[in-house]
Amino acid sequence: MADDDRTGTASERPVALVTGASAGIGEQFARYLGAGGHDIVLVARDRARLEALAKDLDADHGARAEVLAADLTDPDELERVESRLSSTDAPVDLLVNNAGFGTIGRFDRLPVDREVDEIELNVIAVVRLAHAAASAMVSRGHGAILNVSSIASRQPTPNMATYAATKAFVSSFSQSLHVELGGAGVHVMVLEPGFTRTEFQDRLGTGEEEGRVPEFLWTTPDTVVEGALADLRRGKAVSVPGWTNKVMAGSSSAMPAAVTRRVAAAMMKTD
Question: Which CATH class is domain 5-267?
C-alpha cells in the first residue's frame, strides 16, 4: 500500500477523521465537515475515490485532506488508522465511525466468513477506533466521537440478523460512552439513520426488498448528515434524523417485540 497522501497546507482548522468516506453518508460527512471548517482524514478502501474527494475538499473549501486508504477488517490496516487517531501530529478532534456493511438472507444460508467480516467491521473496528480516539481525546480534555448505527438497532431484524445485532451493539456501546466520557470533555453520540438512499442497498442486493418500503420512509445522506451534525452541536447522546425515522424508532420501542419482529421480517423477506 502506498504512503498516505496529503493535499493542501497545514492550518489551525480542527481535524475530523471519517471512515467509510468514499461514498454515501461518509462522503457527505466529509463534505459537510470540510465546508464547516474542518480538515479531514479520509478513510476507506477505495484510494481513487478518496483522492478525488480530497481534491474536491481542497478546491471547494480549502480543506486539507489526508487520504488513508485502509480495509478496516484487516488487523494491520486497522492498526494504521488507530495510530493516526493516537497521533499528536495534527490531532483528531472528531472521529466519525461510519464504515460498515450489511448482509441479507437466512442466516444458515449465508457464508459464515462474510458474517464474521461484518462483525469485524461493524463492531470490532468501531471499538478499536473509538478506544484510540477516546484515549487521545481524554488526555487533551476535549474531542468528539460520532458512531453510526441504524434504527435497525431498535429491534431484531430477521434476514438481517447479524447486521441488526451489530448495530444494537453500537447504539448501546455509544450511549454508555456518552456517560462515561462526558465528564472528561469527550462527547460521544450515536447516529441512528433509517432507510437512506446510498450504495449500501446496491451492495446489500436489496433491490426487490426496497419496493416494500414506502417512498416516504426514505431519506438522503444530506438530510442524515445535516441532522446529525446539528444534534452533535447540541450535545445529544442519540441522533435519529427525520420525523419518519423518529416515529419508527419510537414505535419500535413501544410495540411488543413479537410485533416488531414480524414487521421487520415482512419488510426484509427473502426467498
Answer: alpha beta
